[in-house]
Amino acid sequence: MRYLQQERIESPIALKARKYLEEGYQRLLGYQSSTGGFTYWGHGDGDIALTAYAIRFLQDASTVTETNPAAIQNARRWLIEQQRPDGSWAAYSWDKKEDVTRTAMLTALVARTIASGGEKTNIQTAALRKALAYLDQKAANTNEPYFIASYSLAASLAGETERAAKANAKLIDLAHPEGQQTYWSLETNTPFYGWGLAGRIETTALAVQALARQTDSSDVQNQSLKTRGLLFLLRNQDPYGVWYSTQATINVLDAMLSLFANKNSQTASPGNSIEVVVNGQTRTISLPADSRLTAPVTVDVTSMIRTGANQVEFRRAAGGSVVSLQLVSNYYVPWGNSQSLRRAGSNESLRLETSFDKIEAKVSEEITCRVKAERIGFRGYGMMLAEIGLPPGSDVDRVSLETAIRDSNWSLNQYDILPDRVVVYLWPSAGGTEFNFKFRPRMAMTAKTAASTLYDYYNPEARAVVAPKLLQVR
Prior knowledge:
With 474 residues, this protein is α+β, with helices and mostly antiparallel strands. It is 35% helix and 19% strand. The protein folds into 3 domains: 2-260, Glycosyltransferase; 277-315, no CATH class; 342-473, Immunoglobulin-like.
């Protein structure tokens, strides 16, 4: 909706976007506690990073739909109440000890939220001034690009252009060139627990936004880095056309909006098209009539793919509008070969074990499923999702799941029951989290369960997969 407003485009997409926005807004209010902070599950204490994010959403939403100002005011008041005398907002690790680096990152995030709020009260101005003073001291001795980019954005939004320019100079030094593209490498977890590839994307998007706010068009190095950073972001879309996690996706879209402002209104030449050539077979695709951002045009080339090596080409005449291309492939491999296809550095960071107390049972006989989920080493922190595969036609005992949540000391947060699996939202403690639940097969069968998967909510590339298990029910 911001993009359509920015480009003054009338589109039926706006109606759908407004519908989703209003539904999301109403649901979000249910997660605000009585103190004003926002919670992850609608109960317990408010979370500082989440509340800052919710405020930004509410502020943005208020420009395109009707919102309740009291929700924003209460959240801002709660957020400022959490500020410490030195101007910071504290961040803690799983062991309840303060993480100084993440405290600086969290403070930069909150300062950015306060700075983006338009007209401010005296209390908000004082809180922002203290936060920027704290961040200025930390920036001199920190080489974490996520923090530097957040600080730059906060300073820029607060009108502190000299501080922002100084931070951007440091961002330029921290850039990593890679071929035609550039990225910024995250050295720790983000305030939203992002890490790995998703964290790198989120960090690069923030850096691009920070550089985009520095409007000196004569700065050739700045212009080049923004373009190369954008290329890195565009080349790292996931198969769904987004960027692995919510925070990474939101920050990439913000970066694109900051760079594409008023640059997409030119009209392309009539008959603009592209040829997709797969193994010598050609398919011609008509492109939209102008170069504005549009919904993707999807082409299924499955019938043109063959066993062995395949060659895919894209051909078009010169002079057309800019086009972003993405090739997505889906395939199966034998379970015995699946380990060799895992990407090093992410998949070995998680471990999942599942077992049943019996693999032969009678119809309606109770079967207990035992699960252990574990994060290995110190990479990543935060929520994970475990999808535990079940045989078809199983009745899951909800009481056993509720008991598991109650006995887990909140390392299990929530669950969903699907036809072939149970999805559990969990936050593993040190050494991993173990739990049991029960189910009963409704019919006689010899069948395999669905595969079981554990993945990091904030870096979905990190995952562990357990092969399906064979059960006999008589």
